[in-house]
Amino acid sequence: MKFCFSMLSILFSLFSCGQQPGSSLPPLARYDSLGTGILQLSFTEKVPLYAHAGDKKPFDTLVIRQKKDGSYAFLTNVLKNRFAPYRFFEGDTYEAGRRHINMGLVHFSPELQFRVVEATKTYFRVVINEKEKLTCFIHLQPGYALYNTMVQRDLHNSIPYNDKPTTTYNPHWYLYETWGNLLQRAAIVHVKPDMPLFEAPGSKRIPFPKREDNCDDCFKVGEVRGDWAQLIDREDYNRKKKSYGWVKFHNGQTMNVSYVEFLYE
């Protein structure tokens, strides 16, 4: 009986840390809170994945390859179907891309985003499995550029009219955006009509804009102060209109708002 309890204790310990009996996946720490932001990276090199910040040997390696049909594959030897980051999309095939362009859209590129739990000068701790909340570490590699905004990355890696790369061009990069930076560049921010809206951070509550004002898709984020975001009219490019007010965009565990990064109009 004592042996049975010992075995159950061991099994519970393995499951609670993300390890399954007989699996080569090491115990991975869980993280249930929102984290600090989002990490994207270039697809040019393999991405070693570490179970602990101080590990010298990765437990797995992410390989990103373009398939013959034009889409991309995200390959791991250990995680396999447990590789489930914040967002990942294989991108359009050549055929799907042509079809989308004929519809007036674009060829949709592949996408890979990790939710960041901790960001330091030497590593990112990211959620590698959103369903189980498992985390691992991505070490910053020498020679990689690190950007904090998408504008910064695009300016450094832009191709001028003569088709020659800029002197700052680097095919190997990390893009780490805090939630605030991400929301500020998002094309649209959706807010539920019953969400508290305030005149200023921590100030008095004010009425939510009326539905007849067509405000389902009118919001964009202006300023960000801590966990407060200022809502402005997304079509007010010169910032002449008064802001709608401020909302707390997260509660520590999840986002209180949703967002659309890009528009195809």
Molecular structure report:
- Residues 1-16 have low confidence and may be disordered.
- This protein has four helices and 17 strands.
- The protein has two domains: 19-180, no CATH class; 187-260, no CATH class.
- With 265 residues, the protein is α+β, with helices and mostly antiparallel strands.
- Strands 1, 5, 6, 7, 8, 9 and 10 form a seven-stranded mixed sheet that branches. A three-stranded antiparallel sheet has the order 2-3-4, with no helix packed on it. Strands 14-15-16 form a three-stranded antiparallel sheet.
- Level of helix content? 10-25%
* Largest sheet report: 7 strands, mixed
DSSP, total strands: 17
Outline the low-pLDDT stretches.
1-16
Outline type: globular
The overall pLDDT average reads 86
Number of domains: 2
Proportion in β-strands: 25-35%
Q: For the terminal residues, how far apart are their CA atoms?
A: 67 Å
- The topology string of helices and strands comes to HEEEEEHEEEEHEHEEEEEEE
Radius of gyration: 22 Å
How many alpha or pi helices?
4
By helix and strand content, what is the structural category?
A: alpha+beta
